[in-house]
Amino acid sequence: MPKVKFYVLLFSLCACASAEIRLGIIGTDTSHVIAFTKILNDSSSPDYVPGARVVAAYKGGSPDVESSYKRVDQFAEELRTKWKIEFVSDISTLCRKVDGVLLESGDGRVHLEQVKAVFAAHKPVFIDKPLASTLEDAREIARLAKESGVPWFSSSSLRFSDLAAGLKFPGIQGAITWGPGPLEPHHQLDLSWYAVHAVELLYTMMGRGCEEVSRTYTPGADVMVGKWTGGRLGTVEALRPYGHFGAVVFRSDEKVNQSDPKASDSYRPLVVEIVKFFETKQPPFPNEETLEMFAFMDAAQRSKEAGGAPMKLR
Questions:
Q1: Distances 282 to 205, 276, 287 between C-alpha atoms, Å
Q2: Quick one: 73 and 216 in the same domain?
């Protein structure tokens, strides 16, 4: 091969290897869009994660969810003016401008409809919490992704937090997690709105294998007790209106205490995993675990409606 052609080829390969992944945002009604954009686009930030960059956004928003309609314009304007993000009028147009999608809409009810255009465009997608507002929608998202061959994953930032990292041990016999559990009246699975964080923290400790769930509800808190295969028990307490996150895990020979309350709550560890996902097209943990989390919350919802009776996962 002539020397000139060799260097041209080498330069092209290096350029491709170092090219940033262009990301588009769907939904600007959550503070995550500002936090993630800063982490990805601001190379001077101590939390900076290289490899991907937010370049475009679709505003979205839900007129019947207060936290959406009160914030969607504010966050959109900050993305437009401070971060120079291009806004587009529809999701299909967004997909033509990007390599991957961050579905950030705060309202889980709209995720199924919004992600259909992403799957049609064959763009890998991270779906922020909650994946959906019902078990049926969550399963339909997974089915459509498989049908279209599009990689996806969904996760709470708690899964990759210092809190979780400090309590992941082999041989866990049981765990208790807790955190804020405010409710949003439009979400059919009421735990999916915010208590999903504490549920995901539990699954980070326990893994899959829950068989049934019972739920005790009061206006100030919910307590969900899940029975895992082999008799292990996992408990989630959702506190209202708000509360701190925490966890305790148990092993046969000792109790491992709740992790350090000073543990970092940075979004950076999650964004690191998101960038890896867009690079490799492989989710950082099985999507089946996310679907079981929704089956857990579905069983908890049915238990609540049945006055606390244990309910099998569907």
A1: 21, 8, 10
A2: no
Q: Which of 109, 120, 24, 106 is nearest to 70 (CA)?
A: 106
- What domain range is 251 assigned to? 158-266+284-312
Q: What are phi and psi of 201, to 5 degrees?
A: -60, -40
Q: Within this chain, do residues 167 and 292 fall inside the same structural domain, yes or no?
A: yes
3-state SS assignment for residue 155: strand
135 in helix, strand or coil? helix
| 94 CB burial (10 A radius; 0-12, 13-18, 19+) | buried
Enter the DSSP assignment of 41.
Answer: H
At 166, which amino acid appears? G
Domain contains 152: no
Q: Which tokens in the block code for residue 296?
A: 């857990």
**Per-residue pLDDT tens digits for 173-183:** 999 999 999 99
Both tokens assigned to 46:
């101590």
246-270 pLDDT per residue, tens: 999 998 877 676 655 555 578 999 9
Sheet of strand 233-239: strand arrangement: 254-256, 246-251, 172-180, 233-239, 221-228, 210-218, 311-312
CA dist 266 and 245 (Å) reads: 14
Name the domain boundary from 107, 128, 149: 128
Residue-wise pLDDT tens digits, 121-175: 999 999 999 999 999 999 999 999 999 999 999 999 999 998 898 888 888 999 9
